Amino acid sequence: REVLERIGHLNPLLNAFCFIDEQGAIKSARESETRWLAWRKQRETGFGGANAPRALEGVPVSIKDLILTKGWPTLRGSRTVNPQQNWDVDAPVTARLREAGAVLLGKTTTPEFGCKGETNSLLTGISRNPWNTAHTPGGSSGGASAAVTAGLGPLAMGTDGAGSVRIPAAFCGNVGLKPSFGRVPAYPLSPFGSVAHLGPHAMSVNDVALMMNVIAQPDARDWTSLPFDGVDYTVNVQQGVKGLRIAYSPALGYAKNIHPDIAAATAQAAQHLQDLGAVVEQVDPGIEDPLDITTGLWFAGAYQVWRTLNPSQQALTDPDFAAQAALGAQLDVHAIHQLNQRRGALGSHMRQFMQSFDLILTPSTAVPAFKARPAGHSPMDSAAMLGWTPFSYPFNLSQQPAISLPCGLTREGLPMGVQLVGPMFGDALVLRAAKALESCYDCLRPSWDAGQAPAPASGA
């Protein structure tokens, strides 16, 4: 009830949720309470057959509006989706969360079809950053990230196609993990192909690890899902970084215009890891900026979605998504095949690089959160879409696990994030290193966290 009350108080300012199921959440919480009481009575009396509490028993969780949830509309931030249809399927992650006893709160905002790194749409409007409501929470999991930072539920489920978990985690100051591709199953598969991952948001690495224990289960509906790895992420996370080989790459060899506070914070994180016992070497992985590979494959996916829409639906789309689809329409099959070949070469190079290092340390983004803007605010091209986040999208192409961890505030009072990247299938290792590095920072919340609401953005 406290979380729902807080959502009612703050969501009108933040626009983090686009759908709230208050009655369903209360019903689920009561069922959880019943299980807790039965288990406690069994412990006290020694009688009864109540099961032990589930992994996320009674924990409030939000679901990004790209992920199917039984009984709720999944509109994908788009006016083209008809809400009046049967919503009778849970995506794998939603089903696992229910089985674990989580209390599902509602759907968090996303740009149309998750198409950009800021959260605005013609359907839901502009979402805002809890640290400064004049700024964006990032995207496309901006609603999920804003909700976690603002205390609108401790856990949130997001997706990441080019940084969409890690960008808002950095902009809002929480922990966001993009697991190895296939570690967290998806259904249906993203129209944007195998760059798309699902991942959790939380305010601590421990909570992300706990969530991974729940959602990292295979599902037969996803033919790309990995076999169960048997890892208890909450146990492994405690092992520290002593002796790990970490490549500190402040610019990945190509990134420019990195905010000086972010650059300094990342250098400090490298020093922290060294002080914790890791072997840190400043070295770049030896890749060129793969921005055109990422956006080319993304634009091709946008065009495929566009082709499924009739003319009246196309007229309802976000100008940014329509522009992406138009760019994708210019790519022929030979161009797309070449992009995939270049992606394969990048992935092979990174696999080989990771034979020499356990982890890579970079900034999460090159810039802190910028001003919140409406959909279609500027012409869409590769640079506008992702040019300001050069550290996120390479690892969607290579499918490696990567986490964004908060590392303080800029001089303007906006959160910053550092990124740890692991080898493919090294999700537990990434969480382990993030847990160690997390110990070097305070968990910061916006100043109004004690109950004072943020001031509405002026002129917006």
Write a structural description.
By secondary structure, the chain is an alpha/beta fold. It is 36% helix and 14% strand. The protein has helices at 2-14, 22-45, 92-99, 142-149, 166-172, 205-215, 233-236, 260-275, 291-307, 311-314, 319-329, 333-353, 382-386, 394-397, 427-438; strands at 17-20, 60-64, 103-108, 120-121, 125-126, 155-160, 175-178, 197-202, 245-248, 279-282, 359-363, 402-409, 415-421. An 11-stranded mixed sheet has the order 1-3-2-6-8-7-12-13-11-9-10, with helices on both faces. A two-stranded antiparallel ribbon has the order 4-5. Helix 9 crosses helix 12. The radius of gyration is 21 Å and the shape is globular. It starts with a helix and ends in a 22-residue tail after the last helix.
Write the topology of this structure.
Blueprint: H1 2-14, E1 17-20, H2 22-45, E2 60-64, H3 92-99, E3 103-108, E4 120-121, E5 125-126, H4 142-149, E6 155-160, H5 166-172, E7 175-178, E8 197-202, H6 205-215, H7 233-236, E9 245-248, H8 260-275, E10 279-282, H9 291-307, H10 311-314, H11 319-329, H12 333-353, E11 359-363, H13 382-386, H14 394-397, E12 402-409, E13 415-421, H15 427-438
Helix pairs in contact: 4-5, 6-15, 9-11, 9-12
